[in-house]
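Most newcomers find our protein records easier to grasp once they have seen one. To make this concrete, we reproduce a full record directly below:

===
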Amino acid sequence: MLTLAHISDTHIGGSEHSVRRTEAVVRHLAELPEPIDAVVATGDIADHGAADEYETVRELLARLPYPTIVCPGNHDSRAEFRKVLLGANDGPGDGGDAPVNQVLHLPEATIALCDSTIPGRPEGYLDDATLTWLDGVLESADRPVFVGMHHQPVPLGIPYVDEIMLREPERLAQVLLRRSRTVAALLIGHAHTAASANFAGLPVRVAAGVSSTLMLPAENTQRMAIDYDQPPGLSFHLFEPDGGWLVTHSRVVAA
């Protein structure tokens, strides 16, 4: 059975508060009594996209004794993300500002993280190059694939975050429907709340926010109500490739 830890929206650099909360989540994962297979982080890793923020992120993630894969979110800078976290000075053809698409191969599954960011914009979009890349990963896969990105492709019932969700999600749906037998689930960040949904006939799992929690309309009348006092959250995705079942458990960590 495959076990993935899923974290998102650490927003390192926004405050010492976010660093402490991320440290608590990293410590929780590092001290698990039994090993897990990998840690997936779905964006907004830094708050301003600055190099020193990514240096802090790199130091924190280095404490994890598991394979770790990270994608950018709308608060991230592709160039600094690539340079500091991935150790690469340039992206293909445009000085480091190309989409940061990555793949991690595990014995029981593959994780393909797409860069859904639009530099300078809060909403998301998957460009042609990214969709072509994803289609190629899915076509060549010899094991189930978890597809991840920052922006959610479906509304989550929170007006603020739904206004800045993935644009033209039908373009992604076309790829997923063509390769649906290969895809295990979609792993998403951005919303700062644990949620589950369906898209293109596939399960969608949204990670809680490490830095804060975005409240539902029923919980607060403000358009964008953010709770910084609720504890940081994470998810564990348990997947059995042979049986094809997926179960997600949500956790909060004392910070």
Summary: The chain has a mean pLDDT of 94. DSSP finds six helices and 15 strands in the chain. The longest strand covers residues 233-240.
